[in-house]
Design a protein that fits this description.
about 400 residues, single chain, globular, 2 domains, about 15% strand, 15 helices, alpha/beta, Rossmann fold, 13 strands
Length: about 400
């Protein structure tokens, strides 16, 4: 596994994904090596059996990505020689240079998971640096023996952007439900973060960037407060839009009801999820929506934009979906949860919880390992046929999207 983020270094959802998937694969009997940047270089075997190889690289250097990839190539080559690796699994464009070079140099199967695209994150390619990222994404999906995405929405996006038709599978994110199996003092947490034990708490978790739609959520607050005046919005995360969002809250007259916490540790985030009255995902662009799944696991009602992977994740009364970029509709849905009848909200929470249970990482790891095996088997078949000189007569009846992990 090559990943530019891995716990405790967490920026977005990739860290959680790679960590949980790697541990689940190890539980399934596979030998897993994760190569990722760290504060200090070195090797350690995790208690769950994952081999962790840390590359020492300064994240504040201008050429951070290039240095990280150089380190990954060096460490990756030693792992290939020392352990006999069958598959290199790259996560997003930031590790693409190292992944492609290692795969080509050592003739190893390359699988790539594309968690999101620059086009989708930015609402189009407008700047030169975005085109450079787009080109790296194109090179990675074109070079990989197989591509994994987390939703049908992302599959359509990659087909449209890169023309990829074959060798692509949908395997969703998962959630570790037992991580939320503990009790919290909801009133104490509300007092700490909202200033009152009886406040209704709206929770947002994520990066403060345009595609997460936090401005839409702040725009919904005047309408929410008109119906539910004793309410606070707790925004957990950091990002380049924080100052603008703080100004938005001030200009709308809701600053006293909006709390910016910045980054919080994983345990505190899970505690807040269990204490919240509603988790809101107002995304403009969302390939999957893992935060919504975590809220379901924590037995919290979810209000989310009806967009991308969230549209596929939430159904059958498991949460409320609203049109994206619409503060009025978002406010109405939040109020419906905060003022709704207990039985109705409880039923929504229970449906969401059952969805979370069904999407455990062991099943997702099994599907991922199935893709590895399919690609390796297909490569072996092709090599045998090429050696016989009858490749033109060969038809693989197993082509197409074999490992569609269905969760609806």
């Amino acid at each position: 596994m090559l990943s530019w983020e891995y716990p405790p270094h967490k920026i977005g959802g990739i860290a959680e994904h790679v960590d949980a998937l790697s541990r689940a694969l190890a539980r399934g009997g596979h030998e897993v090596h994760v190569v990722t940047p760290g504060m200090h270089g070195g090797y350690e075997q995790q208690p769950d059996g994952v081999h962790l190889h840390l590359i020492e690289v300064d994240p504040y250097m201008r050429d951070y990505i290039a240095r990280m990839n150089e380190g990954m190539k060096e460490v990756g080559a030693s792992i290939v020689y020392g352990y006999g690796i069958d598959v290199i699994h790259a996560h997003d464009w930031m590790v693409s240079d190292a992944a492609i070079e290692l795969a080509n140099a050592h003739q190893i199967t390359l699988v790539a998971t594309i968690h999101s695209t620059e086009f989708g994150r930015s609402g189009g390619i407008k700047e030169a640096y975005q085109m450079r990222i787009h080109d790296k994404e194109l090179r990675l999906v074109s070079t990989a023996d197989h591509v994994i995405v987390c939703s049908d929405s992302m599959k359509r996006e990659l087909k449209g952007l890169f023309g990829i038709e074959d060798n692509i599978s949908v395997v969703p994110n998962g959630v570790e439900v037992p991580k939320f199996s503990f009790e919290v003092d909801r009133c104490a947490l509300k007092l700490q973060f909202c200033g009152s034990r009886d406040t209704k708490m709206i929770l947002f978790l994520g990066r403060l960037v345009y595609q997460k739609g936090v401005n839409v959520l702040i725009g919904a607050m005047p309408r929410v407060l008109a119906e539910c005046p004793d309410t606070k919005l707790v925004i957990v995360g950091e990002g380049p839009m924080r100052l603008q969002l703080e100004q938005d809250a001030f200009l709308l007259g809701v600053a006293e009801h909006v709390v910016f916490t910045g980054y919080l540790d994983d345990y505190t985030v899970r505690c807040l999820l269990k204490a919240a009255d509603v988790l809101v995902m107002p995304s403009i662009y969302e390939p999957f929506g893992i935060v919504a799944l975590e809220a379901m696991a924590a037995r919290v009602p979810v209000v989310a934009s009806d967009v991308g992977g969230i549209s596929e994740l939430i159904n059958d009364g498991e949460g409320l979906k609203v049109p994206p970029d619409n503060s009025y509709a978002l406010a109405d849905a939040i109020v419906a949860v905060l003022t709704g009848e207990d039985d109705v909200v409880r039923d929504m929470v229970e449906r969401g919880y059952n969805k979370a249970i069904a999407m455990d990482w062991d099943g997702i790891a099994e599907a991922t390992a199935g893709i590895y095996m399919h690609v390796l088997t297909s490569a072996t078949k092709n090599e045998e046929l090429e050696s016989k000189g009858d490749r033109n007569d060969y038809r693989d009846v197993e082509t197409g999207d074999l490992w569609q992990y269905r969760y609806s």
